[in-house]
Amino acid sequence: MPMTMPPRRLAPAAGLLLALASPPAHATDGYFLNGVGAKAEGEAGVAIALPQDALAIAANPAAATEVGHRLDIGAQIFVPDRSATISGNGAGLNGRYGGNGANPFLLPDIGYVRPLGERLAIGIAIYGNGGMNTTYKANPFASFGASGPAGVDLKQIFITPTLAARVLPGQSLGISPIIVVQSFKASGLQPFSAYSEDPAHFTNLGESWSTGAGVRVGWQGHFGPALTLGAFYESKVRASHFGKYAGLFAGQGRFDVPAAWGAGIAVKANARLTLAADVKRIEYAGVGAVGNGLGALFLGVPFGASGGPGFGWRNITSAKFGISYAASPRLILRTGYGWTGNPVPASQTLLNILAPGVVQNHLTLGATWTTRGGVELTGFAMHALGHTVYGNGSIPAAFGGGESDVALGETAFGLSGGWKFR
Fold first, then answer.
1. Closest C-alpha to 144, from 405, 401, 403, 400
2. Can you give the pLDDT at residue 14?
3. Which residue in 97, 138, 79 sits closest to 409, CA to CA?
4. Residue among 171, 71, 69, 173 at smallest CA distance from 125
5. Which of 20, 39, 13, 27 lies closest to 274, judged by CA?
6. pLDDT at residue 30, rounded to an integer
7. pLDDT at residue 4 above 80?
8. What is the DSSP secondary-structure string of 382-414?
9. How far is Cα 227 from Cα 64, in angstroms, rounded to an integer?
């Protein structure tokens, strides 16, 4: 039977989710997740023109007019495999290093949407947008004088209240203010603090917290019974500084979230089969802490300064393709393939030992079973094929020369429950 739930009960649930959120490791689109919600993730993250649950508003706010009154709660177990190899180094760094000192990770999410009459709908989604984590118990920089495990831990939670309106028949617009809560910590990087404008705020200082705000806007349109198109734009999220790490990140510890934009298409081939695809662009190079290269250091700009060194990431494009098939009125099967550009240039692999977000190909499977009581139970599995970026001129002569190679592979499994209300 359909159920009802007062929206006021969502606030405690959202707070609990935020409290339980564990740090994401590298996600599939650089450090962004490949998708949000178990249904989308079963189709490689496709969602811009294919809203299937309340968490679809995380991809396109206009989806709030399409999914009805519903609540979706899910979680996934995320298992990355990070490693680095250093060779030809004259300072003693050579060796193969495993960055899997912390594994696995629990990533929860929650979404709620409620129509307000025929044309308006409101909603909220809370989810891990992405992050990065490496823990090298054998410190790759020990020969430089580093001590203890080396690694970084970035976690980002997005909170996106949403308003959407059906402005014309079959055409909807939506907007989501974005509230970001993020934390960061670094350890085992002591030798590099000598190259910082603020060495006391560089490493081994525990968690530092930051908040930020931005906006996401979206459009979705139906063109006949079989074709749906969608598009979104997400502004750069301007975030406060990580004060404890003001000497590490460019701009005295500033770590903004990059702008992103994309479009999607969904085609209902017949009563059972739906094909969909998304294309997305993420502008990592527009965030100094992520996009600035190590070369800035040798132009006289230290870590932590405006324009100071970062991970050297470039902008990337991702493409996702998904298929869903209604095997019966109660069972829907899904599969998908996603490809994303590699943000890490071969010349920037030294610092990216800490942030090897280099996977490019991922495959997914998923299914939804609707119980006799109307509860939708969804599961998915994702595997991102291991990928290595081989360094090319990656270790400066001042650090002993040679090359560093970074590698990443990923596996994830997730479950969610969906409830439709009157």
1. 400
2. 42
3. 79
4. 71
5. 39
6. 86
7. no
8. EEEEEEEE--SS-S-GGGT--EEEEEEEEEEEE
9. 18
Asked whether residue 7 carries a pLDDT value surpassing 60, the answer given is no
- List domains and CATH numbers for the chain: 7-420 (2.40.160.60)
Burial level of 239, CB count in 10 A (0-12/13-18/19+)? buried
Give the C-alpha separation, 345 to 393, whole Å.
Answer: 10
**CA-atom Rg of the chain in angstroms:** 22
Say if residues 246 and 198 touch (Cβ distance below 8 Å): yes
Range in 97-106, 266-275, 397-406 the model is least confident about: 97-106
Tokens 């100094």 correspond to 288
Q: Which residues contact 24 (CB under 8 A, 6 or more apart)?
A: 31, 33, 78, 105, 107, 128, 130, 131, 132, 133, 155, 156
Q: Which residues pair with 213 in a beta bridge?
A: 179, 238
DSSP 355: -
Dist CA 277 CA 280 (whole Å): 10
Contact 234, 194 (CB under 8 A): no
What is the helix (H) or strand (E) element at residue 20, kind and residue range? helix 10-20
The pLDDT confidence band at residue 27, using thresholds 50, 70 and 90, is low
Residues 6+ away with beta carbon under 8 Å from 250: 288, 289, 292, 303, 304, 305, 306, 307, 308, 309, 310
